[in-house]
Amino acid sequence: MLPATNSARPSLADVLTSCLDAILGRGNTLGLPPADRAIVLLVDGLGASSLRARAGHARVMARAFQKSSVATAGFPTTTAVNLATLTTGAQPGVHGLVGYTVLDGAHDRIVNQLNGWDDGLDPASWQRSRTVFERAADAGIPSVVVAQERYRDSGFTHAVLRGAGYVSGRTVPERFAAARRVLDSVEKGIVYLYVSELDQAAHARGWESGEWTDALEAVDAELGLLAASLGRSEGLIVTADHGVLDVPATSHVLFGDGAALVDGIRFVAGEPRCLQLHFEPDVSEALRAAVVDRWKAAEGDRAWVVTREEAIADGWFGPVVDDAVAPRIGDILVAARKAIAYYDLRAESQAGRHMIGQHGSFSPEESAVPLLRFGAFSTAGR
Q1: Residue 272 burial (C-beta neighbours within 10 Å; 0-12, 13-18, 19+)
Q2: 15-23 and 79-88 are packed helices; what angle lies between their axes, rounded to 10 degrees?
Q3: Helices marked H in 65-171 — which ranges?
């Protein structure tokens, strides 16, 4: 059976769009009341299940965590995809970022959507949707992103954060303080505050590590100060782009040492928990079908193995996939069901195999993220 893609929970696509609607005094998907200023805190890698498990280390978040305080991250559950969904209000099949690494067919290559941007990949056209920040500017509402300085001029920033001003802060406390200053400087406006430290700790040490818990405590402490400072017309939402599973090296699934699973495959894209395999353009339909069948026979008990057409028909990338976006999706998708990660032995770099925290697939640990409300938004939708 394929994973369920229809959820009654809010989507990340609803968060910033609802904040803008609240500032404009309009009804919105999240049921947010009118507010003058809104701040969205995105804690990269903070899954709802991990937050529940470590609630004693995050008292501020835990007090706001109710049954309705969960949103669904889009597929694949990876940062590039879901930050684009958050900031555009569109699903991957429309905005066009469909994986961690994806096929750039015009240049016959695989590109990293976070840090692989170059002159051959135009952020303004590759990410195909207008951002919430651009729509806010149309309405006379300023938007400001608060993040680390190293992200300011990246191709990914130009793709998904266009339309917003940018303020940097090196540490978590510096970024929270900067967000408060921005709120104080505008009569109406949106602040998007990005924290990457939990995701980085998870990849290096795992979400069950002391380092991850320390990072959670640091964010929660700053959140408490910010939440206490909110005025009557200031609302705050805390969410995440995905959660994390810890996958030990003993659960790595290695492939590529034999021809059966890679026969006719030109590119391996995606990420370890959600492979996207692209065939050579001249591969016969018979071989394509045979390779799909081999993957299903080898991995069907621990992964969802589908063709591009099946994934699109089942709504994996949203209800609509634009014709220009479809070729970026793999011909075969292998999305892990169990706590495993796939690695191609033929890859030039095997550095990723040191990663402990993983994400990308459909598990609740990866796809369920917090949706916590504070200030003017704290009683909305309850």
Answers
A1: buried
A2: 20
A3: 79-88, 92-95, 123-126, 132-138, 155-160
What is the tens place of the pLDDT at every residue in 134-145?
999 999 999 999
CA distance 212 to 243: 13
Q: Are 35 and 380 in contact (CB under 8 A)?
A: no
Confidence of residue 162 (pLDDT cuts 50, 70, 90): very high
Please check whether residue 91 is in contact with residue 250, taking contact to mean a CB–CB distance below 8 angstroms.
no
* Distance (Å, whole) CA 21 – CA 140: 13
Two tokens, residue 300: 């069907």
What the block records as the tokens of 244 is: 């994390």
**Which tens digit of pLDDT belongs to each residue from 255-306?**
999 999 999 999 999 999 999 999 999 999 999 999 999 999 999 999 999 9
Q: Across all residues in the chain, what is the average pLDDT?
A: 96
Tell me the average pLDDT across 40-52: 98
- Residue 233 tokens, joined: 């017309």
Structure tokens belonging to residue 250: 């003993």
Confidence check: pLDDT of 380 > 60: no
How far apart CA 276 and CA 268 sit, in angstroms, is: 6
The size of the chain, in residues, is: 382
Q: For the whole model, what pTM was predicted?
A: 0.96
DSSP 347: -
Helix orientation angle between 210-229 and 172-185, rounded to the nearest 10 degrees = 20
Residue 381 has pLDDT above 70, yes or no: no
- Residue 105 burial (CB count, 10 A): 12
Paired sense of beta strands 234-239 and 372-375, if any: antiparallel
CB contact set of 45 (below 8 Å; sequence gap of 6+): 198, 199, 202, 207, 240, 241, 242, 243, 244, 357, 359
pLDDT > 70 fraction of the chain, expressed in percent and rounded? 98
Please name each of the domains of the chain with its CATH number: 12-90+131-245+363-375 (3.40.720.10), 249-355 (3.30.1360.180)
Torsion of the alpha carbons at 259, 260, 263 and 267, rounded to the nearest 10: -90
